Amino acid sequence: MLVSGSFNVLVNAVADDLGIALRKANTLLEFDDHGAFHAIHTSGDAKVAKLKHLERFCEELGINITECACIGDGANDEAMFAATGHGITFKGSELENQAWKTIGTLHDIQTIL
After folding, report:
1. How far from 59 is each of 46, 52, 104, 111, CA to CA, in Å?
2. What's the pLDDT tens digit per position in 43-99?
3. Which DSSP string corresponds to 85-108?
4. Short-list 43, 109, 107, CA closest to 71
5. Domains of the chain, residue spans
6. Model-level pTM?
7. What is the CATH number assigned to the segment(s) 2-112?
8. Are strands 23-31 and 101-103 parallel, antiparallel or unpaired?
9. In angstroms, rounded to a whole number, what is the distance separating the alpha carbons of residues 24 and 61?
10. Which of 2, 3, 98 is nearest to 50 (CA)?
11. Which parts of 19-70 fold into alpha helices (H)?
């Protein structure tokens, strides 16, 4: 699953590229039938929204949130790190002291998961 504080168009592109079916973005860009920008919607504070999105996915999948690992690098990921107990961040990130694991590159995730 992919939960991001970013825009739905970016999250959908990344999720499609990686073959991730479950995805949720904090910010929804809405376009009309002609492809013109129509509106912007947000799920609220990214820190709170990202955790709520993750909790909903866990509920839908019937898993405990502590069975999840999350990857993040900013303050809006702190709540997910705390809830899962399995936060993964990058060396030098502001979350390094709160992380379960620290990685140098995204490829390092393969050694953890």
Report:
1. 20, 10, 31, 27
2. 989 889 999 999 999 999 999 999 999 999 999 999 999 999 999 999 999 999 999
3. S-EEEETT-TTGGG-SEEESSGGG
4. 109
5. 2-112
6. 0.83
7. 3.40.50.1000
8. unpaired
9. 15
10. 3
11. 46-61
